[in-house]
């Protein structure tokens, strides 16, 4: 998962709204979002190589999402899968803060990552790069492959697009389409706007849009999640091919237990 825009306690009817793109190598196998057979309370896509996930929610309202921290100079050949951090929280019972406190100790074992975890009342953020646990303040935020709200072009555009969609007077279907339009934007940033994360100029250019389209690596799916104040959850995931085209849609609606 490489771009997550989210509104936390920023809308009177929806305590949490999430719009996210998952970017991954196209040859890494994954299944679309579904209720997991071995963990029936978890709704998420699944990495079929390591068994974890990048974004999901449980029937009890536990939410988690992950992005990688991009730093090619810091690689660990024997690191465990970061996707397990999401599924472990979703399936567990530890409080948000307790879970992240435990993770602080284990974080150096993993490749660099950012993790959002929440339970409906609390939403917290942890970066393995800083080692800090932060309570997410109410508002619109975005996270890519650096720390929370790092002003990369697509992070700033994601925050602006989600803010505009929430403030506009339009039907919910139109609001959802407006957010998906942003998640489908493959316009690249100018060279002057690009960060330098150590991957070289060509890759910085290719990774700069919200929707990444390259032959071997790109946006594999787009997800929108909303939790209404009364506990109604809407989860929609759109799978994408190597051209960035939508190839399948999963839509689930349920009420929190």
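-> sequence recovered:
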């Amino acid at each position: 998962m490489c771009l997550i825009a989210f509104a936390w306690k920023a809308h009177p009817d929806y305590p949490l709204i999430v719009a996210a793109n998952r970017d991954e190598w196209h040859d890494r196998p994954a299944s679309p979002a579904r209720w997991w057979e071995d963990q029936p309370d978890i709704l998420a896509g699944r990495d079929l190589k390591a068994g974890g996930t990048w974004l999901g929610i449980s029937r009890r309202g536990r939410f988690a999402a992950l992005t990688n921290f991009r730093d090619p100079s810091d690689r660990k050949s024997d690191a465990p899968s970061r996707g397990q951090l999401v599924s472990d929280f979703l399936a567990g019972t530890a409080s948000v803060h307790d879970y992240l406190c435990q993770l602080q100790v284990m974080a150096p074992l993993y490749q660099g990552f950012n993790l959002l975890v929440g339970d409906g009342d609390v939403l917290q953020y942890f970066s393995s790069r800083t080692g800090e646990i932060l309570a997410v303040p109410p508002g619109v935020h975005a996270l890519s492959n650096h720390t929370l709200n790092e002003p990369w072009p697509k992070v700033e555009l994601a925050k602006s697009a989600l803010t505009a969609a929430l403030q506009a007077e339009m039907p919910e279907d139109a609001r959802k389409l407006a957010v998906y339009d942003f998640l489908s934007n493959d316009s690249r940033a100018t060279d002057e706007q690009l960060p330098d994360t150590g991957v070289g100029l060509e890759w910085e250019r290719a990774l700069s849009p919200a929707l990444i389209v390259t032959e071997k690596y790109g946006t594999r799916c787009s997800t929108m999640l909303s939790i209404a104040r009364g506990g109604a959850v809407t989860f929609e995931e759109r799978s994408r091919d190597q051209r960035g085209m939508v190839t399948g849609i999963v839509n689930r609606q349920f009420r929190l237990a």
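The chain has one domain: 3-255.
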